[in-house]
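User: Could you check the structure of this?
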Amino acid sequence: MAEILAKQIRERIKAQGANTLYMVSDFADLNNDGVVARTLSRLEKESVLVRISQGIYLYPRRNHFGILRPSIDEISVAIAQKDKARIIPSGLTALNKLGLSTQVTMNAVYLTDATAREIRIGNRTITFKRSAPRNFAYKTDLFPLIVSALKEIGSANVTDEHIARIQETIARCEDKEAVRHDYGLLPGWIKKRLSV
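Assistant: Sure, the predicted structure tokens are below.
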């Protein structure tokens, strides 16, 4: 029985394709967490999977140089999808994504509507911080990012250059109705500074 399940797990991983993350919970339908955990561990020992963090494995993309690891952001998004959670990049991560900072952060922080937790990936950390539902009321992915980034900078430190860069990004957003909706949800001081 265990061998049959192990074979099913291997086949499913191969069928899903490279650059996919796996946890024991992905195989809940097999009703045997013990066999799943042992199989994932064995696949790591055989170098089929790479252990990203405690209980999280990657079926990696490879080229002739070796394994191509996904970015911290890709890993964070994949974990959020598995948790059926929404996430918003926060702090330096948000500044980076908006092009307001070139500083590369070793530790990524995301606001989430799911459980708060921290995941270690080698010498790096992904932190999911539980956040208020209002932060997830936006229709676009852009506006929560803007709010996170500007809060990180602080109202006293936001420059005209920051605002110009953000306004350019908003102008490229095609869904003007969603932009109007989201603009209405902005905190007062950010709305005043942006005045789109």
